[in-house]
């Protein structure tokens, strides 16, 4: 799983995890299965109605629209997800971490013809592997990528922060917080970074400054990170 750094409009740098290629392929298989099952059921319904062949063609064109528009409609109304993407916990986002608009989803959908349909997915896989940042041709044209929303469990999820032996704290005021309060700050901060939610990070920064009376020129994301590390340093000394 690769990471790429996005820069928000508020000049906050946030790392995002690109969706694993295997997760994207499984999501594609799930979505394709749904489309195939829907198409088979619609054929069965048309034949069971015993309608005229001329009318059947017209009816098929109408009822096949949901399958045809599956990706662009679901991604537009499900916040960058399809059924397959939801199950695999992946989502389409713009490269700056914001929510894509309909034009972004539409470009991705149109270029599925090149990425997936004409090459059986070969061009998409090749582009993702070579390009990096989880982008197929449609993503490159639309300025989007696909990120993973899976929470990766590591030592950082059980400890506040791992510090180098020569770490020097910056803000002694952080000791005003209690363990449970700092744990909440850490969890909110880590979650906001994963989801690219800069508003939460800014809010955390402002609340910490208010409680501690700290004045600093550090960016919000850097400030909160230092506060967590400093707290960990001082509590380790007890």
Strand order of the largest sheet: 1-2
Roughly what is the average pLDDT, rounded to an integer? 84
Radius of gyration: 24 Å
Number of strands: 4
Return residue spans where pLDDT drops below 50 for at least 5 consecutive residues.
155-159
Strand portion, in percent? 5-15%
Order of helices and strands: EEHHHHHEHHHHEHHH
Helical percent range?
Answer: 55-70%
Structure classification: mainly alpha
> What would you call the shape?
elongated
Q: How many structural domains are formed by the residues?
A: 2
For the terminal residues, how far apart are their CA atoms?
37 Å
Number of helices: 12
For the largest beta-sheet, the strand count, sense and barrel status come to: 2 strands, antiparallel
Give the SSE map.
Elements: E1 3-7, E2 13-17, H1 21-49, H2 53-63, H3 65-68, H4 70-77, H5 83-88, E3 90-94, H6 102-110, H7 112-117, H8 122-131, H9 137-142, E4 144-148, H10 179-195, H11 198-212, H12 220-236
Antiparallel strand pairs: 1-2, 3-4
Characterise the protein shown here.
This protein is mostly helical and 238 residues long. The chain has two domains: 146 residues, no CATH class; 78 residues, no CATH class. Helix content is 58%, strand content 8%. The chain is built from twelve helices and four strands; from the N terminus they run E-E-H-H-H-H-H-E-H-H-H-H-E-H-H-H. The protein has a two-stranded antiparallel ribbon with strand order 1-2. A two-stranded antiparallel ribbon has the order 3-4. A hairpin with a 5-residue loop joins strand 1 and strand 2. Helix 1 runs antiparallel to helix 2 and helix 10 packs antiparallel against helix 12. About 2% of the residues have low confidence.
